[in-house]
Amino acid sequence: MHFARQGFTMQATDLSPTDLDQLRHQAKTVGMSGQVITAVHDVRTPLSLPDASVDADFARMLLCMVLSTQEFHAPVGEIRRAASRPSRGKPGGQLHRVVPVITDEKMMGP
User: Fold this and answer.
1) Cα dihedral value 30, 35, 22, 12, nearest 10
2) For 2-18, what is the mean pLDDT?
3) Strand partners, 98
4) Residue 80: enclosing H or E segment and its boundaries?
5) Angle 103-105-107 from CA coordinates, rounded to 5°
6) Residue among 88, 9, 23, 24 at smallest CA distance from 56
7) Element (H, E) at 26
8) Would you state the pLDDT for residue 3?
9) Which has the higher per-residue pLDDT, 76 or 108?
10) H/E element, 12
């Protein structure tokens, strides 16, 4: 995780307390610990965020998890619900996702 912008608050959720500890440590290292809120969260349960309260969502590996179809659609729906809406006087929320891309021919197979 790399932080570059001042003046925003980030709420990070993850199933792993260890990953959240690492995020808090990095935020502290770059002087942004007051801007990062963390919470352990299982994506198979609803987010504890109000509707239209998020400007952007960054999903790292979320859509690569082994989930049933219903479990896959639930977190995406929650992100959509929490994302900002133009009707609230803000631009529409954004979802940024990161997924691995395998380019090594040995890993890709014949």
Assistant:
1) -140
2) 72
3) 60
4) helix 69-82
5) 80
6) 9
7) helix 17-29
8) 44
9) 76
10) strand 10-14
Provide the 8-state DSSP code for 66: -
Residue with tokens 């014949």: 110
d(CA 25, CA 12): 13
With 0-12 CB in 10 A as exposed, 13-18 as middle and 19+ as buried, what is 110?
exposed
pLDDT at residue 6 tops 90: no
How far is the C-alpha of 105 from the C-alpha of 110, rounded, in Å?
8
Residues 28-87 pLDDT 10s: 998 888 888 888 988 888 988 888 887 777 777 777 776 777 787 888 888 888 876 666
Q: Which amino acid is at 68?
A: S
